[in-house]
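Inverse folding, one chain.
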């Protein structure tokens, strides 16, 4: 599943970054690495922008980048 398919208000874990190396390096510098827990806070359907929480920081990312972030669901207890 990819970030663009995730639901608002749910927590996920980054499984893989499948985007250009330059964008991958930038996301990793911002804390979006494989295994990192993220939460989708908002999804602007008309523009495709996503607002996510990563390690206590809110980030806005575009649809193209969200299409390249593979995620998996995190169980409710967070383990």
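Residues assigned per position:
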């Amino acid at each position: 599943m990819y970030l663009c398919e995730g639901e608002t208000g749910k927590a996920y874990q980054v499984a893989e970054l499948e985007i250009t190396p330059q964008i991958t390096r930038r996301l990793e510098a911002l804390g979006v690495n494989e295994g990192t827990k993220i939460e989708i806070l908002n999804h602007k359907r008309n523009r495709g922008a996503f607002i996510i929480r990563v390690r206590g920081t809110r980030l806005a990312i575009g649809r193209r980048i969200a299409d390249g972030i593979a995620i998996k669901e995190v169980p409710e207890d967070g383990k």
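The longest helix spans residues 21-29. Strands lie at 11-17, 37-44, 49-54, 57-61, 69-73.
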